[in-house]
């Protein structure tokens, strides 16, 4: 039980995929303009990450390993991720056309989100079993969502603040992200994972 | 000891009330002319019921509201109506509005009054009608018609009636002096209101910086059920919602009114007006107003007639124009600057501050917000002024509205404490105005869309109806044709033409039959003509056709002449028929010519 | 060696077919009909039905915007509408396209009744039926319903319709935002 808790704490805070491992920065900077879009994006990414992490694990353990095809893992994982993202796109389009239009190109770009592929691949190094894989993917997703939402909230406030002209837009966003990363550095060593 | 609660926030600005309370209430002298604005209340502007040049008596109704919410306007003194025109009125925009200009004749003659000795014998509605006819609207600043306010629906019974004697804003002492010198009228008015509402509790709340007023009111309420409660001095404890929280511990729900929780607040001046309306039959034609500020030599309170130009009062108070820098209507926290002193005293004017430059200096320039949060600490409505400021400034009005922008009472406490001198309330007022404007435009756009769609539907419907009618007519015409054919055939068979038409139809039928016969003959004859014999054109038949066509043309031309003389509707149709017949005649002639040519060129059949 | 390559290819093929089937099924299951976005866009447009955007009415323009048309073509809507559309669709707000007209103060049509001949041409032109009248009878504009689209001015054969600016009234007055020149570069930018 504590094992699972530790996995979650590790993926959400200590080894946060965005601010500590610096994966998935594209949607992090691109979708964090408004809080509503950020929340929509984080939900979509959570769904994709968890599902693809599980499917990748299953594909690896029950298909690639027995057939001794582990060298195919990268392309297989990409295939799995692409399918899951397509599926998510369809669901989002049906349930919320506005969110679909607002997310725009970033929804299919989850396929190329290095965090998603990264989670799938890094999961293998940890020799996790099924439940642990699920938690690993889910924890990564929650960490991503947490940071995305926090950053979006901050960017909304910064957008209306008196920022000097040279810093407006992406520049102050990067500075803020860097400061957030510094803050998350404080979690180092909390969990020995 | 009555239990009191406290509201969060609030400030303690310097009171500056002693200047105007050291002198007793003064009756302002009768002015030469008065300007009575037609809208001194919330609702529709009143419509004038007198004419220019008409003489009116004091207390006579000169304008009334017939459609919509509002209260009538009365002449404050006797005189002649000089004009009904745009005049400056006290409004933050500095704009003019419709006013009735009354030239006083100096006699101050009352019209016939109708006092009531025992109002309790009347019906509740009758007393409310009296209050409306007396033109009474809230005199604390908003101007809501008092009779409508007192007419609460049955499901919202008022349990606590509060008379607001707090007067928390600095400089203003009008209610203070009213309570000191007209205490019995205040209590009489409150009793009328209590009789109308039947509350369980009646309270008069007075801030503890007015000990004389408290003493006077305590004396006046002896032998009544009314409580007089002294509340701690804090700005803005005179705000309706804050006062209710202090006295009852209850909060008025966001976007709601005090009646929602069974409470009602009325102004001290309104109570006096109600008392005068019921017991003396006098309409609301005067009010107590504070004239203060360092630029006047004798700051005091005046009992002034509604419509008196403020310049008169300033003069009476000894205005020193050299020292005067700014005229503020209202108090330093919630008031606005007047652009001219020609504005009249209205039912909601409570104070004019004639300030010197050092007394109310121009505000320092706005500096960046340092996010100190002082504003949130003093907000009496527990809002987030800093966030409201950011959203109002960047025009993100949706978010501002979401943070309860419309619950802001614009008291000015946040602007007062801001270390960067940001005019916060101005931003909120701007945001509120924009949001209201957007809502009005949205409403208008929705209406326009509805009208547009209705119009499209109407045009569709008309097109369809036209189609229907056209089909109907075509069908009817076809039927008529069928009938005619049948009759003609019958007539042709029997050789009996009953009327001209069927005779004509019979002729047509015969002609058609002949043509058909000829057509059948023609292939037969062409069969015979295999030897190269060209068909002989039947000159006789062609000549006959030409004769027929010419005959028809003559008839049609005759009908056209008739039609033109009578200016009948079918003139166009007749013209077309004539043209057709012309063509027919022409063609017949041509065919005949060609046939004759052919015949003459043809070698005789051998 | 060849067997492993063939097995690898077969595995990938198999996976692709399975996933393809799944996606195809999902595409059917989650099919989207219509376009509710158009309603949301239409709700933001001012409904003057004037046609200045180049489309025959506000709804066609809303449909075009949903298909990617520029959002800066509506003069009666002005800056506020462009900003609202930009917020809804999460695109950059652009300044009003001058090709389609400039933003003007609100205007209403007024018919000079002395000159009206009762031809009903303006009544037929008004997209919101804001003109009251009948053939050979006086025509007049219902001011509260007029959207100021000025489609009625052209058809009038005697040119008796004026577009009058609505003057601000004490009742329609609103506060202006306080001016603040806080950031030096902003001030310079404003004066530049």
From TrEMBL, chain A:
One of its GO terms (biological process) is electron transport chain. Keywords: Cell inner membrane, Cell membrane, Electron transport, Membrane, Translocase, Transmembrane, Transmembrane helix, Transport. The keyword Cell inner membrane applies. It comes from the Bacteria. The keyword Translocase applies. Pfam families: Rnf-Nqr. The chain crosses the membrane at residues 6-31, 43-63, 69-87, 99-122, 134-153, 165-187. GO terms for cellular component: endomembrane system; plasma membrane. Its EC number is 7.-.-.-. It is an enzyme of class 7 (translocase). It is a multi-pass membrane protein. It is found in: Cell inner membrane; Endomembrane system. The complex is composed of six subunits: RnfA, RnfB, RnfC, RnfD, RnfE and RnfG. Part of a membrane-bound complex that couples electron transfer with translocation of ions across the membrane. Belongs to the NqrDE/RnfAE family. This is Ion-translocating oxidoreductase complex subunit A. The gene is rnfA.
TrEMBL record, chain B:
It is an enzyme of class 7 (translocase). [4Fe-4S] cluster 2 binds at residues 379, 408, 411, 414. It is found in: Cell inner membrane. Residues 457-503, 576-599 have a biased composition (Basic and acidic residues). One of its GO terms (cellular component) is plasma membrane. Residues 1-24, 457-541, 576-606 are annotated as: Disordered. Pfam families: Complex1_51K (PF01512), Fer4_7 (PF12838), RnfC_N (PF13375), SLBB (PF10531). Its cofactor is [4Fe-4S] cluster. Its main location: membrane. Keywords: 4Fe-4S, Cell inner membrane, Cell membrane, Electron transport, Iron, Iron-sulfur, Membrane, Metal-binding, Repeat, Translocase, Transport. [4Fe-4S] cluster 1 binds at residues 369, 372, 375, 418. GO terms for molecular function: 4 iron, 4 sulfur cluster binding; electron transfer activity; metal ion binding. Gene3D superfamilies: 3.30.70.20, NADH-ubiquinone oxidoreductase 51kDa subunit. SUPFAM superfamilies: alpha-helical ferredoxin, Nqo1 FMN-binding domain-like. It is a peripheral membrane protein. Binds 2 [4Fe-4S] clusters per subunit. Residues 359-389, 399-428 form the 4Fe-4S ferredoxin-type domain. One of its GO terms (biological process) is electron transport chain. Its EC number is 7.-.-.-. Belongs to the 4Fe4S bacterial-type ferredoxin family. RnfC subfamily. HAMAP family: RsxC_RnfC. Part of a membrane-bound complex that couples electron transfer with translocation of ions across the membrane. The complex is composed of six subunits: RnfA, RnfB, RnfC, RnfD, RnfE and RnfG. This is Ion-translocating oxidoreductase complex subunit C. It comes from Marinobacter persicus.
Automatic annotation (TrEMBL), chain C:
It is found in: Cell inner membrane. It is an enzyme of class 7 (translocase). It comes from the Bacteria. [4Fe-4S] cluster 3 binds at residues 126, 146, 149, 152. InterPro entries: 4Fe-4S_dom, 4Fe4S_Fe-S-bd, 4Fe4S_Fe_S_CS, Elect_transpt_cplx_RnfB/RsxB, RnfB/RsxB_Proteobac, RnfB_subfamily. Residues 107-136, 137-166 form the 4Fe-4S ferredoxin-type domain. Residues 33-91 form the 4Fe-4S domain. Its EC number is 7.-.-.-. The keyword Metal-binding applies. [4Fe-4S] cluster 2 binds at residues 116, 119, 122, 156. Its cofactor is [4Fe-4S] cluster. GO terms for cellular component: plasma membrane. Residues 1-27 are annotated as: Hydrophobic. PROSITE patterns: 4FE4S, 4FE4S_FER_1, 4FE4S_FER_2. The chain crosses the membrane at residues 6-27. GO terms for biological process: electron transport chain. [4Fe-4S] cluster 1 binds at residues 50, 53, 58, 74. One of its GO terms (molecular function) is metal ion binding. Keywords: 4Fe-4S, Cell inner membrane, Cell membrane, Electron transport, Iron, Iron-sulfur, Membrane, Metal-binding, Repeat, Translocase, Transmembrane, Transmembrane helix, Transport. SUPFAM superfamilies: 4Fe-4S ferredoxins. Part of a membrane-bound complex that couples electron transfer with translocation of ions across the membrane. Belongs to the 4Fe4S bacterial-type ferredoxin family. RnfB subfamily. This is Ion-translocating oxidoreductase complex subunit B. The gene is rnfB.
